[in-house]
Amino acid sequence: MAVSSASGAVSVPSQGGRAGSPPPREGRAGSPPSPERPRCEPSAARSDRSYLTELRLSAFAGHRRAAFALGPFTLFAGPSGCGKSTALRAYEALARLAGGAGVGEAFPDPLACVPERARPDAQRRRGFRIGCTADGPEGPVRLDVAVQAEPGLRIVGERLSADGVVLLETALRDPSRPWVQAAWHTAGQSPVTRAPLPDDRLGTALLPLRVAGKTDGQRRVLAAAEQMVVALRSVFACDPRPDRMRARMPAGSGRLHGGCDNLADVLRRTRIECGRRHAQFVAAVRAGCAGPVADAVAEVMDDGTVRAVLDRGDGIRTEFGRLGDGELRYLALSLVLLTGPGVLEVDPVGEVPQAMQTLTVLADGFDRGLDPGQRGEVVRLAARMCERGHIRVVGAVSDASGVAGADGVTVVHLEP
User: Is the per-residue pLDDT at 42 higher than 80?
Assistant: First the structure.
C-alpha cells in the first residue's frame, strides 16, 4: 500500500512477524524507567485532552506496515480500493474495544481483516495486527493489538507502552484456555504483576478493575490506560443515508444516529436548546442548498412523527424529503459538526468531564454526493470546528483536489 501525505511521505516503520502474532517487543514488561529517561509527567505543553495522533495498520486487510499521522482534521484520499474505508474501520474497531465490546462485536467479519497473502502458521493460525498512539497528559502512549481470526477469533497479544517502557503486555500461552497471560508494570516490591485476562476483551480497558493503584508504577499504568481509553471511546461513526432521512420518524431521544435517519427529531431538539448553534446550522444550510433559506424547522405531525422542512421565507416550506441526496448528506454532516456528545449517539466516558474529552467523528465517504461548493463549505466548517479542540474529524474522500492545501486539513494520499 503506497502512502503519502500532503506535506510529504508518511513514515512507515517496519514491523516484522507473522500476522496474528503478538506485537513486536518494545521493552521488557515490568522494567522500571532507566535513570537517564525521566518518567512522563504532565506539563504545561501537554494537552489536558486525550486524542489519537497515529493509527497503525501493521497487518490489516490490504495494509501492511502502515502508519498514518492523524491531525485534528484528517482526510484519507485515493481511488476506490486503496484502503480508505479499511483505515476508518480499524479506528472504529479500536474504539469499540476500548468501550468494552467483545472482539466479535469489534470485528464482525474478521477474515476480511486478514491480509490476503497471509499464510497460516504451523498451528493453522492466521490473524491481523493494528495499533494507535494517544497523546495527552501522560505524553504519547502506544497500544498494539494482535488478533487471531482463525481457527478461532481471539486477542492473542496486546502491548501498552509509554516512554519506551512496556506497561502492559499479554500473550497467548495455552490455546486451549479462553484467556491470555498478562503482565503489568508495578515498580513496587515486585516489578511486575501477572494474572490471566480474557482473550475476547481489550486488556487495557480492563486494567482499572485489576490494578490497585498503590504504587507509582501501578498509578502510571492506570493513567496511561485511562488516556488511551478516553482517546478512543468518544467516537461517532457517521455515514448519512439520504434514503432513510426522507422518511418521517417518531419523536425520540433527540440523539443523532450514525445514519442520520432521525435528523428531523434532532433538529427539533437543537432548535429549542441552542439558538446560537441553530443559527450557525441555518447559515450552513443557506450556503449549501439551492434556493432561498430563512430557517430550518422540525414539525411534529398529528401521528406523532417529526418532519423537517426548509422555510423559504415567502410562505413556502420544502420538506427535506424533496431535497437531493447531496443536499441531505450536506445537511447531515453540517449538523454533526455543529453538535456534540450530548446530541450525537456516542458512549462518552462518564468518569471524565466532557470538557476534557474530545469527540472524534469518523466520516466514510465524506464527499460522497456533494458538489464542489458543498464540499468546500463542509470542509471549511469541519476545519473551523476542529480548530476549537472539542471535536476531531477523520474522513475518507475520493477526490482531494478541492481540499488539498486547505487550512487545518491533513490529507493522507493512498494508492492501490
Answer: no
Return residue ranges of the chain for CATH 3.40.50.300.
236-415
If we measure between CA atoms, which residue out of 94, 92, 16, 118 comes closest to residue 58?
16
Nearest to 362 by CA among 240, 277, 230, 261: 240
10-41 exposure pattern, b = at least 16 Cβ within 10 A, e = fewer: bebeebeeebbbbbbeebebbeebeeeeeebe
Class of domain 236-415: alpha beta
Maximum separation of any 2 CA atoms in the chain, in Å: 77
Q: Is-cis flag, bond preceding 79, omega within 30?
A: no
Is residue 126 a contact partner of residue 148, using CB atoms and an 8 Å limit?
yes
Burial environment of residue 317 by CB neighbours within 10 A (0 to 12, 13 to 18, 19 or more): middle
As a whole number, the mean pLDDT across the chain is 85
Portion of the chain with pLDDT greater than 70, in percent: 85
pTM of structure: 0.85
Task: Give yes or no for a contact between 399 and 376, defined as CB atoms under 8 angstroms apart.
Answer: no
What's residue 23's pLDDT?
53
Q: What is the DSSP string of 109-158?
A: SGGGGS-TTPPP-TT--EEEEEEEEEESTT--EEEEEEEEEESS-EEEEE
Lowest mean pLDDT among 11-20, 34-43, 83-92, 135-144: 34-43
Give burial (CB, 10 Å; 0-12/13-18/19+) of 246: middle
Per the listing, cell 507502552 goes with 161
Judge contact between 326 and 367, C-beta under 8 A: no
- Distance from C-alpha of 8 to C-alpha of 348, rounded to nearest angstrom: 35
Query: Cβ-count burial of 159 within 10 angstroms (0-12 exposed, 13-18 middle, 19+ buried)?
Result: buried
Query: In the chain, pLDDT over 90 holds for what percent of residues?
Result: 66
The whole-number pLDDT of residue 48 equals 80
